[in-house]
Amino acid sequence: MFSASSHLQAPRFNCFSVVCVQPKPGADGSYPVDRAAAVSGDKLLRDVMVENKIELYAAYGKLMNCGGGGSCGTCIVEIIDGKELLSPRTDAENRYLKKKPESWRLTCQTIVGNKENSGKVVVQRLPQWKK
Fold first, then answer.
1. CA distance 101 to 112
2. Where in this chain does the record put each 2Fe-2S ferredoxin-type domain (predicted)?
């Protein structure tokens, strides 16, 4: 006898968590942290952050960003942990971030995960503000 449940596999969803450390410490000296979760992979880091209402831009970036085209640099983050879960740098990133550390990425060009992996990515927002 044919059983649909024995022949159909449930789709597999991979989960990714994104932890965003803010660039300036709070009054207590600790750095505020925002967290987001994304199901599946192949999603731009920028989209994960925006959809979860994680502040991405400084004041000027809110007005002057390119909307995800990889041409303004207002969405720069530093990857603290989980770089193996991200896509390689794009040509746009290589051009724009040529003299920046390898750990710096443009969120609008960085894809988090794929259908085969899952894990946690930790980013530092606005790394250019670090002292």
1. 19
2. 64-112
pTM passes above 0.70: yes
Topology (CATH) of 12-129: Ubiquitin-like (UB roll) (3.10.20)
Q: What is the DSSP letter of 98?
A: T
Helix (H) or strand (E) holding 92: helix 91-96
pLDDT in tens, 26-46: 899 888 888 887 766 678 999
Q: What is the DSSP string of 82-108?
A: -GGGBPPPPHHHHHHTTTS-TTEEETT
Domain range list for the chain:
12-129
Q: How far apart are CA 78 and CA 128, in angstroms?
A: 9
